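EI: anyone free to look at a 96-residue chain?
SC: sure, send it
EI:
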Amino acid sequence: MKKVVFIVPLCKLVLCDKLLFHDTLCEKFGGFTKYEIKGGWFNPETGKVEYDLSYKYEVLTDKVEVLKAYIIALNKRWKEDCIYFEVVDTDVHFIK
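SC: here you go
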């Protein structure tokens, strides 16, 4: 099992898209954890530092390539330059 972490700008998920997105993450990949985060970067085109709010998602899955293809397809609609997508080897235990 791998932990996949990806970041989606808050403004890209409108309410109906967010619900469908969350349902898809649960149904196809077993679930997700979501965090609201703030980030910043230097924009070389404007010469300014830019900030935005985003959602950081974590998904535990064996279907990394399927999830990656799903995020790539969504990103075409979102029209972001890129989406941060990290795959982490992990040793997860669900304990009682």
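EI: The chain has a mean pLDDT of 92.
SC: 👍
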